[in-house]
Amino acid sequence: MSRYTPPEQSKTGQIFDIVVVVVAIFVALWLPLKLGLAGAAKSIDALDAKTWEALGQNPTMASIWEKLGYTPETAHDIIQNRFHYVIDWPTLIIMAAVLIGYFVFLFRASDREYRDVINEKFDDK
Amino acid sequence: MTITLEPTIHGDRVSLLRVLGPAHVWALGVGIVLVGEFTGWNFAADKGGALAALIVCWIVGLLYTSVAMIDSEVTSTVAAAGGQYAQAKHIVGPLMAFNVALFLVFAYTMLEVSDAILLGDTIVAKAGVEGLTHNSFIAATIVVLAWLNYRGVLMTLNVNFVITAIAYISIVILFFSVSPWTQGAVLKLNELVTPGNALPYGWIGVIAAFQFGIWYYLGIEGTTQAAEEVRSPARSLPYGTMAGMITLLIAAAMTWYVCASLMPWEYLGITYYPLWDAGKLTGSPLLENLLFVATLLAALASANGCINDAARAWFSLGRDRYLPSWFSAVHPKYRTPYRSILFLLPIALAFAFIADLNQAITFSILSGVLQYTFMSINIIMFRKKWPLGSIRRGYTHPFHPLPAIVLFCLCVVTFFAIFLGFGSQLIAMVAFYFLISLWFHFYRYKFVRRGDQFTMPWPKPQGY
């Protein structure tokens, strides 16, 4: 098998590739954070009565909250800010499909490239 | 880390010195990871309650034991710089190697971001000055550490060893200072973790907590980054990695026990510095200050190691032409991968200024879990392509393929855990890796020298 000689990349080409990587990082990862689309999906289950008892805190817990500088009013939004684990099946299926599709593509495309590597490496000998 | 980049007359060629022993391997792994005890693990309590945080501590410990076993075998055989990146190049192929390097870069860069946020918030909380924000401290941490890495004035592993030891000892001191053998005097576990609140979300909360359970140990696999610098990889890597795991398991158990016995789970689940809070709640100024300093030291040691590791992985991508070769330049005077360091600096800053601690940690965890999924499949392929006896292995892990199967199953559970509460971040991150992989496979790969990707003196793999 003839040895593959890759093209030399121009400086402009290198700059373009760097820009592509930066754009991909910021569009896919940074933008969802900036737009508030990422992060913990929690919401506050508000209570009318803001007492340690209503917040489910026994005297030991209440004393620690107070030691940390909280009152029932200020601790309310922390204690009542909860996850609500309802499985959204369509989203779960999309997530699973994306993940599986990603790994299948990764291993299949890698294998094609790997055959190039092995052929060139061992056919040289 | 004592990674030395030496340009030769042929150009930018990396030359690494074999100077490290098992203690350095331990310091390399634990130094990056120990910050996880000072922040992050406690978000598992937020997702599932205090007891869930303990359950995942042990189950995820099993995941990492599998990682350590698998990694020790592959790395002691593929004793090349780059760790999992070099493994992927030799066992799976260039596209996988490209992704694995990106997993490393983002796991470490987001860990660095988390460290900087922790450091900034801890200082702001300690100062207690109205209107003081963490931004200047975050910027200073990231820029100064990047500058140190640029100059090559790295904290060596010996220094990291000392810092890590101080941070670890502070946890041990805290543990024994609160009379862990007695309840009621300082610790009040049975009053804070009750049958009614131990698992506030039930068992689905335990599964959800897997996400942050990863944070107890994330980065221990970084020990393999030093494969080419270790005097005896076959001995040092398994010993150092396993010793690191044992160290972390003990630290994680002590940390959970003290913190869960000192603060309600709702507070434990949202605080950025649980161990420092634990020090405060003991009422001892000495312990409070000790844990404050230890939190800063752990964050600094981790961030410094992360900058070095992330830049090194990015540098490797440039050197192999997976990314523009511009990144592969070595500084003529300081012998550091300075362009990679400078390129990753604004990215770290950009995320540090807009991300919450748990968002930054989630990005890091996601990259880590993607990498562990790769590792579980990688070891199966490794044994298939080069069966036992066909090549010399530095270490052969027992019970194959059980650790790989356990690892894969726990990764699937962790993906589901991330979906519970952080699903949009998971999809964003996988979409990023998918898109960048398409770009690599259909465009960038043409610049890669095929045969140069395989450098080990092994026979042709079976099936090719």
Automatic annotation (TrEMBL), chain A:
Keywords: Membrane, Transmembrane, Transmembrane helix. The chain crosses the membrane at residues 12-33, 89-107. It comes from the Bacteria. This is Uncharacterized protein. The lineage of its organism: Bacteria, Pseudomonadati, Pseudomonadota, Alphaproteobacteria, Hyphomicrobiales.
Automatic annotation (TrEMBL), chain B:
GO terms for biological process: transmembrane transport. InterPro entries: AA-permease/SLC12A_dom (IPR004841), APC_superfamily (IPR050367). Residues 31-427 form the Amino acid permease/ SLC12A domain. GO terms for cellular component: membrane. It is a multi-pass membrane protein. It comes from the Bacteria. Its main location: membrane. This is Amino acid/polyamine/organocation transporter, APC superfamily. Gene3D superfamilies: Amino acid/polyamine transporter I (1.20.1740.10). It is found in: Membrane. Keywords: Membrane, Transmembrane, Transmembrane helix. The chain crosses the membrane at residues 23-44, 50-70, 91-111, 131-150, 157-178, 198-218, 239-258, 290-315, 336-355, 361-381, 402-420, 426-443.
